[in-house]
Amino acid sequence: METDSRHTSLPPLKTRIAPTPSGYLHLGNALSFAITWALARQQQGTVVLRIDDLDNTRFRQEYLQDIFDTLHFMGLDYDEGPRDATDFTQNFSQHLRLPLYNQMLEELAAQHLLYACPCSRSQIAAVSPEGNYPLTCRDKQFPLDLPDATWRIRIPAGTEISFHDLLLGNCTVPLAAEMPDFVVRRKDGIPAYQVASVCDDLLMGINTVVRGEDLLLSTAAQLFLAQQTDATGFLNVRFVHHPIVREESGSKLSKSHASLSIHAMRSQGFTPKALWQQLARTLHWQETEITDAASFLERFRLKDVARMQSK
């Protein structure tokens, strides 16, 4: 299955900053915010702040506030979205859009693409140590109303998703091999991230998605959902998958390491100028004096973001 997001006549760019309030934001989040914001501002586009809060298990009010504090600290503005934490909770929470997400699930169920799976993570890991779902329940015909079960989507064997990335070029992701029959509804009945993300991007008219290259599989999963629901708006999205910030060990930064968060840096006296200089060093842009959002925007060239990979 293939979709191509290249266009001959491009509409005005509209993108989103979409953090999750599941931990304090770190340098990798800040870099993604900066790239997203600069790409939009360089093209006189629109930036939406969308906060993905469906994961109640890790949500904390201080993590929500940290999103607004970090954007303010960095000097990044946006055109649509909540003004503050209270405005978000009252008017912009994803929980207010559950009917929209459930509508997509109903459409997928009507096509007999979904099945129930009561397997726990430990049961899956026991059979598949690498973590890939071994299709245990695909043919068991459990009813979708089975208690304490996830809903999974059938992905035909050999399914690959191809798309064009503005930074990486042509990409092909072996979805069936690397993310077989992924979850679309959690055991608690809440639609999964992949469903909510597609629905939100469609609702908000997003036509350019900027995210880390570690989310290539998520992009493929979301394009697969869009194909099954004829969501042309998402199939035409332009993608930018940028390199991610890594720890010295080589692993990607994690919100679980609070000492590496922007919140911790601020509490230790880290200034906005110091943060922007750190982002410049991360991108290997030391030849230019970057001290704030404006100087980052002046220096910003999307093609130069790829230099992170080669240094």
Describe the structure.
The chain has 311 residues and is α/β, with parallel strands linked by helices. It has a domain at 14-93 and 201-310: Rossmann fold, CATH 3.40.50. Helices cover 39% and strands 13% of the residues. The chain has 14 helices and nine strands. The strands form four sheets. The protein has a three-stranded antiparallel beta sheet with strand order 3-4-7. A two-stranded parallel ribbon has the order 1-2. It has a two-stranded antiparallel ribbon with strand order 5-6. Helix 1 (27-42) links the parallel strand 1 and strand 2. Helix 7 packs across helix 8 (216-228). It is globular and about 60 Å long.
Task: Offer a few descriptive terms.
311 residues; alpha/beta; Rossmann fold; 3-stranded antiparallel β-sheet; two-stranded parallel ribbon; 14 helices; 13% strand; disordered N terminus
How far is the first residue's CA from the last residue's CA? 34 Å
Run of helices and strands: EHEHHHEHEEEHEHEHHEHHHHH
CATH architectural name of the domain at 14-93 and 201-310:
3-Layer(aba) Sandwich
Helix content: 25-40%
Order of strands, main sheet, comes to 3-4-7
pLDDT < 50 stretches:
1-8
Give the CATH topology of the domain at 14-93 and 201-310. Rossmann fold
Shape: globular
Report the count of strand segments. 9
Largest sheet composition: 3 strands, antiparallel
What is the typical, i.e. mean, pLDDT? 92
Radius of gyration: 20 Å
Under CATH at level 1, the class of the domain at 14-93 and 201-310 stands as: Alpha Beta
The number of helical runs is 14
- The assigned structural class equals alpha/beta
The CATH superfamily of the domain at 14-93 and 201-310 is: HUPs
Share in β-strands: 5-15%
